[in-house]
Amino acid sequence: MILIHSPVKDTQEVKARLSYVEVTFAGQAYRLGRYPIHFHLNGDMSTSYVRGCGIHKTFNRAVNIHGVHNMLVEKTVIYDIMGGAFFLEDGVETGNTFQYNLAIFVRESTSLLNDDVTPASFWLTNPNNTVQHNAAAGGSHFGFWYRMHSHPDGPSFDPNVCPDKVPLGIFFNNSAHSFGWFGLWVFEFYFPTVGGCEGTEPAPAVFERLFAWNNEKGAEAVNVGALQFKDFTLVQNKLAGYEGKKVNNVALWTDDSPLIRDSLIVGRTTVIRDSVQGCTQGGIVFPYGRGFRAINTRFVNFDVSDCATFRWTRITGTCSQFCGGFTYHAQQLKFVNAANKAIYEWEWEGIILDTDGTSTGKGPGWTVLPSSGTLPSNCESAPEFSIGIPASMCPPQHKWHRFAFNNIKPESLEGKNFTFTNEYGTSHGPYAKKRLTHKPGWMCALLMGATYQFSFEHGSQFQNISFTGQFYDFDSDDYLFLKVDVATKPDRFSINGGATFINATDGVIDPDTAINGDWEWDATNTTVRYIVHGRQRAKRAMSSYPVDRKYSLTLYKCFFKDCIPPPDPNTIPPASARPQDVDFWHDANIWNMTTDGYLSNIGGSSGIPKDMSNVNIAADTWMVVEAPIAKLGTLLLEGVLEFNNDLDAVYHIEADYIVIRGGRLIIGWPDEPFLGQASITLRGNHDTPYFVPGEGPDLGSKAIGVYGGLDLFGKDVGRTWTQLAVTANVGSNKIKLADPVQWQTGDDIVIGPTSYNPWETESFRITAVASDNVTLTLNGTLKYKHLVHQETLSNGYQIDVGAAVGLLTHNIKVIGQDYNNLYKESFGARILVATLQYKERTFTGYARLSNVEFYHTGQEGFTEDYDPRFSVAYVATGTVSSIKPSKVFRCSFHNGFSTAIGAFGIGSLEISENVVFGSIGNGIRTSSNDTRLLNNLVALMVHSGTYQDRVGNYWEAGIEAMLAKELVMHGNLVTGSERLAYHVVPMDCEDKSGRYSNNKAFANVQGVVVFPEDQFNLDSECAKLANFTTWKTHDFGLYYQNTLSLVAENNVYIENQNGLLTMVLRPITTRHEFANKTVDVLDSIFIGRTSSFDCSKDVSPANDLNFNKSNNARPSLAPGKGSVGLIFPNFYQATNMAPGKPWKGCMAYNAIGGLMRISGNTFAKYGAGCKGAHNFAVSTNIGNDDGQHPVEATTTTWIDTDHGHKVFYHRPNAK
């Protein structure tokens, strides 16, 4: 090796002039800095050179220039070089010249750095150098590679130098052929800027005269700015002549834009056989982004089926499908034997504007894009651009604007494909998790001047849809309209997320005078039409360049006048008994027809209500029903309607809508529950008109709107759920309960799962109850085994886990009527308890629900807190009191289509001893203050993202309470959730109230989870999760990833694949920030495998869509896919992007500080597992980097765990 090094930079103390020297068998593998010729940290070397040398058969590069400027390397031939050949090292090197050199057979080397594994003949880390008249041939990877970092690496690091922003020196008259990868590669970032680091104005970088042939790609630029490729000759490169990946921060379609010009691109020749190299698949592969131009370029021999002059890029891992939508300009193009002009693969992949007619053979200004249903009728077929899917070309008066959006509301639309219709027809846009912008989300192109209406597959029932998006490239007079269906005229309309509001336009919007965001109301069709316009609302000079319009669309009807909640006018509690003066339903002399079409008890001779009558119980009256009544249309209660309590009473109440506006509906009393049989059946489907009772939350249809009082007190059944006393085996038709019950023959029950599969939940009807009131005979045999495991550990802890059993039947029922499309539309009955304004009066509802059965209730997809169409939803009713005494007690919710119970803006609501079975989405959800969740059972929560084979992938929970405040949660059990069991706000570490106790999670995909995106305001910088038991969790019993330190205390983890995994985030390591963050695991019990664990049954569900879609959540396993109790801590400077990315993965540097303390814990029954697996009490995280923060352990108890299965360290990740 030849090393040239000066003790002092820029002194020219060292000179090296190497002329016509042969260097062979040089360089030392595996030795950094041991190169054949190495100029090392000398600064200016303007008097030194390497000229006319021959360098061959080297083991570690050829000529390495490190921290050196103004060197000359010319007329040198290199051959058979391992690793990068002509090599600029740190990125600070400038003014160097490489000219008239020949590099042959530069090949990969695994003996140094990653850059040498994929070597280049010329490897340049700073663009401000001269590279001219060089030839590179026959290497394994690259001819020329421009590889710029944000700042120089190594000893030359300087924050004031930004190689990825430095203007290009000279790249001229170079050639590269027969490379395994690319002739020229610009990777990963290069945004040349006037002024370098501090500059903002793009500076075009002109790469001139490259001859590249027989490579995989002639040239590729990955993530770049205004790069211009001029006078290139690109011949028979396999995948692309030129390919761009992304262009950003550039002038749009000007002389300073990114472009390729004055070039020749040849698809195939007679020199290289088609069987060897084939035809170039894409002459120009357009990048994602705006501003790119193709000028004065000739395409030759693109005439076979798999190649075309134009294609569009794909970026693996970023966006490889359904991306694009950008516009590209083409002019002065020539096509010689090149009939295949473009291959499109999907509907909105890209748009070519033919500025002079040479691409289309039409006049200037025609556009080419894939054919779709929304193209104007005067567009024509374009066969030469239809080598893939059909394409069309459209006359110059038509212009398209890219539109991308996400953050859709309601959230249930996430994952659905959308359709959009204009005056010409309908097109479609697929949902995609990976997008260039607005991911996950949607993208399309919209026609200037057209009016569009959007809808979503299986989502036509949704109105008031909001989104965050961007409309691209609007000149000052460009515009288009969008329409959205709404139930009523909005009080608020905003395009910036509610920061400011825009008043409706009087009359019809005139595009000639309108400004961006103007909107109009169409009362006939109940739609809002708004304009996206190049003319901005701000009063400033119009831009002469195209502008983008960012939208965060928000529109809503205020619940109250001026969107201000009114005071509650009610000051007395509801009456606790029937008054003396009442009306009776079957008295024909009290009914008369009102002017608004209601039959009302105001006195008259209209007779009692008949089938489909609309009935209004008048204000200040009390109506009693003592016999069956007819089916009704609308039942409006402004007074009280009471159903008489009689043991033999049977009432069937059927209606389209029941609206309690200031009145009250009573079936049973708190001290005198209803003893007969009563059902409330609501009719309706997606097409049923909405009922508008006044100013308040949308009631919709098939609903009970409670703006007064709803008292449903069914017969008390005592205990509503318990656990099995003994294991119930497959094929048995008997079960034994752990507690005696008052259930009866004919009642329906649910039995929870005890494996890793939520769908092993089963339901049956009781055919006999033994005299012990614990042994039940069922109407069928068990399809699955439902376990009970009871065992006392040597330290005295008693394991007592088993399948839950819940009662579903009650004598008061709320039912959504069946119809042909019930399951397809998933549209059941609902109860909305809310505040309403009507005729300048305010009505606030309450609902006391006790021992009520809800069947086919909830309306799937309506999940936002402003429109929660759950089985029961409380919205903005204030704090529970004796005046508004709401409560949900001992009810059952089964076979529904949405969340069972929702609490939004209601304080101190008690939700207790309820059974929820088969909810679509969250089982119980609250964001209110002081919600009291007591002894509820939630079984089989079905993930709405994969419901009916959908592809959404968000995270719902059996109990969702992350936004709740002062939550109280005791004795609940979530079993069989397809996603999370509990997503609840942690307590403050200083909170000693014991607000959480004895909450359990059995047989769920995930247990107790806190995500990095979760936000909660605690008094200290420490969160606490305590008193949970998780059993048979498929992935994580408890998963925590957030910025606060964590205390996990008094928890029990049994047979989870991972018991506890914690990730504590921040501060920023790269800023040298430090914080003493901790994870404390205290007084908890970890149990590996009990004797009841079944290796053949306790496995992941096979071919399950939900499990496949939640693959990122899989845990950190031990050898042989064994389970782990406690995972060593992870302290990172930033999130790993869970839940969208692998939950256990590492995507950021480890934090500088961090400590786990484990004290008073018991680890039991860890050892050899199923089929060669090994279960460990404690383990490192296989997804972590090799750095491990310290762990302090004290007073640990080990039970039935041999020494070899206490702690497992994964092997370091050598990659």
Estimated share of beta-strand residues: 35-45%
Q: What is the average per-residue confidence, as pLDDT, rounded to a whole number?
A: 94
Radius of gyration: 36 Å
Give the oligomer, counting copies of the same chain as homo and different chains as hetero.
single chain
* Helix coverage percent: under 10%
Give structural notes.
This protein has 1215 residues and is mainly β. 1% of the residues lie in helices and 41% in strands. It has 3 helices and 105 strands. The strands form 11 sheets. The protein has a 24-stranded mixed sheet that branches. Strand 19 (193-194) and strand 20 form a beta hairpin. It is globular and about 120 Å long. Mean pLDDT is 94; it is low at 539-543. Pfam families: CEMIP_beta-hel (PF24606), G8 (PF10162). InterPro entries: CEMIP_beta-hel_dom, Fibrocystin, G8_domain, Pectin_lyase_fold/virulence. Keywords: Cell membrane, Glycoprotein, Membrane, Signal. This is G8 domain-containing protein. Its main location: membrane.
How are the elements arranged and paired?
Layout: E1 2-5, E2 17-19, E3 22-24, E4 37-44, E5 49-51, E6 54-58, E7 63-69, E8 72-74, E9 77-82, E10 86-88, E11 97-99, E12 102-107, H1 114-117, E13 120-124, E14 130-132, E15 135-137, E16 142-146, E17 170-177, E18 182-190, E19 193-194, E20 201-202, E21 205-213, E22 217-224, E23 227-230, E24 233-235, E25 240-247, E26 259-261, E27 264-266, E28 282-286, E29 293-295, E30 298-300, E31 308-312, E32 326-331, E33 334-336, E34 350-354, E35 366-370, E36 380-381, E37 391-394, E38 400-409, E39 418-422, E40 425-429, E41 442-447, E42 451-456, E43 466-474, E44 479-485, E45 492-494, E46 519-522, E47 527-533, E48 547-556, E49 583-584, E50 592-593, E51 599-600, E52 613-617, E53 622-625, E54 632-637, E55 640-643, E56 650-655, E57 657-667, E58 677-682, E59 703-713, E60 721-723, E61 734-736, E62 748-751, E63 762-769, E64 775-778, E65 788-792, E66 798-802, E67 804-807, E68 812-816, H2 822-825, E69 830-838, E70 841-844, E71 846-850, E72 852-855, E73 872-879, E74 887-889, E75 892-894, E76 901-907, E77 910-912, E78 915-917, ...
Parallel strand pairs: 1-4, 2-5, 3-6, 4-7, 5-8, 6-9, 7-10, 8-11, 9-12, 10-13, 11-14, 12-15, 13-16, 14-17, 15-17, 16-18, 17-21, 18-22, 21-23, 21-24, 22-25, 23-26, 24-27, 25-28, 26-29, 27-30, 28-31, 29-32, 30-33, 32-34, 42-44, 49-53, 51-52, 52-54, 53-55, 54-57, 55-57, 56-58, 57-59, 58-68, ...
Antiparallel strand pairs: 19-20, 34-35, 35-37, 36-37, 38-41, 38-43, 39-40, 39-42, 43-48, 44-47, 45-48, 46-47, 50-51, 60-67, 61-64, 62-63, 62-67, 63-64, 65-66, 69-70, 86-90
